[in-house]
Structure formats: structure tokens, C-alpha cells
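Exercise 7b. C-alpha cells:
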């Protein structure tokens, strides 16, 4: 579960759930990238929000504060009822590869 209080504020969940909370990052940032840049933005590793996400998530994984990346919506082209939310993104893109690399450490 990501943090609706902001991209990095998971403390309310840690306080409430303790070790049962499985912290992730990415949903807030990826939603923002999609909203500003569309599906093609989700494959552009040079965007500042991606750089921040990757750098910060690397630190959060290293300190044990997160366990994964949360909700990578890469292909909902035919399954989402909201046309404006539909997308199909190349899973072999640089940002997705970078996320897998960070998570595998």
C-alpha cells in the first residue's frame, strides 16, 4: 500500500499496523507522471519525477522502509471503464527496468 498522505509519508500506517504494513512507493508519482505526460511519459526515465522516485526509493529499500513499488498500471487499455485512464505502456522501458533493478537489490 502506498501513502495517500504524500509520496514518502508512510508513518501513519506504520503507527497503525506495525509489521503488518507492507510499504510501497510509486503510485502517487506514477499517477502524476501519467496525468502530466500521458502514457509516453511513463517510459521517459529522464523526467524529474522519475529521477526523484528512483533515487528516493533506492534509499527507502536500503533502510527497509519499503518492500516494493506499488501499483504499476502498465496495461489497462481494455479493462478500465474510464477511457481517460486507459493506457498501454512498454514494460521493457528504462524506468520499469530501473525499478526492477532497485527492488532486486
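Sequence design result:
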Amino acid at each position: 500500500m502506498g501513502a495517500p498522505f504524500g509520496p514518502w509519508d508512510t508513518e501513519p500506517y506504520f503507527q497503525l499496523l506495525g509489521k503488518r504494513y507492507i510499504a510501497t512507493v510509486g503510485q502517487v508519482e506514477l499517477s502524476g507522471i501519467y496525468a502530466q505526460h500521458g502514457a509516453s511519459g511513463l517510459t521517459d526515465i529522464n523526467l524529474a519525477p522519475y529521477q526523484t522516485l528512483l533515487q528516493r526509493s533506492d534509499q527507502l529499500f536500503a533502510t527497509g522502509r519499503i518492500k516494493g513499488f506499488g501499483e504499476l498500471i502498465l496495461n489497462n487499455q481494455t479493462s478500465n471503464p474510464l477511457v481517460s485512464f486507459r493506457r498501454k505502456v512498454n514494460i521493457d522501458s528504462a524506468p520499469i527496468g530501473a525499478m526492477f533493478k532497485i527492488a532486486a537489490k
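Instructor comment: The radius of gyration is 14 Å. The CA atoms of residues 9 and 104 lie 23 Å apart.
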